[in-house]
Design brief:
The protein is an alpha+beta fold. It is built from 5 helices and 4 strands. It folds into 2 domains: about 55 residues; about 120 residues, no CATH class.
């Protein structure tokens, strides 16, 4: 009986040892899984944080392109009310040599020449205000000559295209409207001789 009891006790101890080892192994595996999950979660959180910072630092459109800069026309506005060009007292007489030369050069009528000539002489007022915002994105500018003179400003593609009717405030052309158009086409200006660059006194 003593030998049998000893054998039973020995087997029981072995079973208990095996159960302890199996339990310890299960705990070790569970701990590893939890550590791996925690590591994955932390990595995901870091990636999400970086993505959020990048998005905030560089706004983009729905197509993934960076948002273009937009001219703030409220900063350009002169606060001057537009005048009626039909009753306007232009600094150049409609039959003056300057007006006749302008009309002939650009193939427009005398009234259009008188109006455009006056606006072109005062256009730097509007141009300087826009250039304050464009800085390095500015490429060139031009004045179109026709029924409606327009100040076209060519910029780099970083600027959004836009248009604005600027009311001149200088006494020389006060109240006259000069349309301004922003074209982000990177076009460089070409020199062109205008008859009003050397006005007859």
């Amino acid at each position: 009986m003593m030998i049998s009891d000893k054998k039973d006790n020995s087997m029981a101890k072995r079973l208990i040892s095996m159960m302890v080892i199996a339990t310890a192994s299960m705990w070790a595996l569970t701990a590893c899984d939890n550590a791996t999950d925690s590591s994955v979660d932390t990595t995901d959180q870091v990636a999400n944080t970086v993505a959020t910072v990048d998005t905030a630092a560089e706004p983009s459109t729905s197509e993934g392109k960076p948002t273009a800069d937009t001219v703030d026309w409220s900063l350009v506005d002169s606060g001057t009310k537009p005048a009626d060009p039909t009753n306007y007292k232009y600094p150049f007489a409609i039959d003056s040599q300057n007006v006749r030369d302008y009309a002939e050069f650009f193939k427009v009528d005398a009234a259009t020449a008188q109006h455009n000539l006056t606006i072109s002489m005062a256009s730097n007022e509007a141009l300087s205000k826009v250039l304050d915002q464009l800085s390095e994105t500015y490429v060139s500018h031009e004045l179109t000559d026709g029924n409606e003179m327009t100040l076209v400003i060519h910029t780099t593609p970083d600027v959004a295209a836009s248009r604005y009717d600027y009311v001149l405030s200088d006494d020389f052309a006060k109240g006259l409207v000069l349309p301004i158009e922003i074209k982000p086409d990177g076009k460089k200006g070409e020199s062109k001789v205008n008859p009003h660059e050397e006005l007859v006194e």
